[in-house]
Specification:
Structural class: mainly alpha
Number of helices: 9
Order of helices and strands: HHHHHHHHH
Number of strands: 0
Helix content: 55-70%
Strand content: under 5%
Largest sheet: none
Shape: rod-shaped
Low-confidence stretches: 190-206
Length: about 290
Amino acid sequence: MAQSVDAMLDDAAGGLQYFAQFIEEYKRAYGGYYGGHDLDFLYARYDEQRGMDLDKLTTTANGLQSALKDVDQEWSTQTGLSQQMSSLWQGTASNSAQDMFRQQLSQAGDDKTKSRALMDAINAAIPGLRSTVQDKANFVKGLVGDGGVLSGGKTPAQVDTIISGASMGLSDGTIISRLQDIFPDQKPGGSFGATFSFAEDPLGEFGIYSGSEGYGARLKGRCQDWLAKVFKPDFEGKVGAFIAHCNTTDSAITQAYTAVTQAAQQVTHKPFVRPAGTQAPSSQPG
């Protein structure tokens, strides 16, 4: 049995952790939410299709198919009887009855055709509705890979440290060592790297503890460069792609339901023609 819409969304919801883990880091780095979209907004867009019951649509289409099978048989029977009427009954009354019978069969045939068009519209819509929700869910699920929640290969904790490094002034050896672990290419090299100890620079003469000069400035620049060239485009790109998927899904579903609604509106409830002086049966109990 195919998954329900809610089950598809539930199965992929873990991918939303990308936004949950990085959205506040982005705000911290750049002073606001990208596009003004906070986490509640992103969650709401993801959940837009929750409660959409494709099984009910399938049941409706199956019910129409069953009813139309009976209608087709009855219509064929009544058409055969109408063709025999002229040989069984002649005269003015017979002509009037035959004319009325033809009108009823024509109206029934029209209703039958429009009801079948509604059934076809529902059957055509269901796979597309399921597919467009699954596409969005697949995209979200892919935001978090086997390595967990990462941006540019960095964990949320590492990104947090990089943001701190990008704005550091006077600092301490703790953040310096953490940044060196995050960016191994920034570790001092040569004899300096082999012999230097942070304790040997208590006054910051080499700029180790300062983000404004020397080695500290180099690390600070590395952090700023990584945020601008890796984290920012990664986060903004994924938010933008997510919203695009949500918009595509919403548009596809609106179009599908519009087609079904238009087909349903074509099915008339006009009373069938009846002999003069008679009334349609009452739908109310006597």
